[in-house]
User: Which sequence fits this backbone?
């Protein structure tokens, strides 16, 4: 099992940048593919990005392609989400998730979830 704790959220102006972190405890972190999801008020949770166990392959949802970058540092048990050129529609609670699947899914099929961190983008 693994415990996930997100951090780095906050208030940012449109066009700005933010870097989210997800720290994992438990073992072993390198056994999990990782994903980021987000949920805005009155909307369903949606897939944002994912990364394989080794970090060699990444996946992105269309709305964030070219603006977000997911990465991981297995030695530090941490996955990151670099968010650039932020837009008001990026406002949501962002969640980190872990899966034992080799290929991280873009659906709500992860084994473990963090508590989330709020990202608010103002115009």
Assistant:
């Amino acid at each position: 099992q693994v415990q996930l704790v997100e951090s780095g959220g906050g208030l940012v102006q449109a066009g700005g940048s933010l870097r989210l972190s997800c720290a994992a405890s438990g073992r072993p972190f390198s056994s999990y593919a990782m994903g980021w999801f987000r949920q805005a008020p009155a909307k369903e949770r949606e897939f944002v990005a994912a990364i394989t166990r080794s970090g060699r392959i990444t996946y992105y949802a269309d709305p964030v392609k070219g603006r977000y970058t997911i990465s991981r540092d297995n030695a530090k048990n941490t996955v990151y989400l670099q968010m650039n050129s932020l837009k008001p529609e990026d406002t949501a609670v962002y969640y980190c998730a872990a899966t034992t699947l080799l290929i991280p899914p873009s659906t709500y099929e992860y084994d473990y979830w963090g508590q989330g961190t709020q990202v608010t983008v103002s115009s």
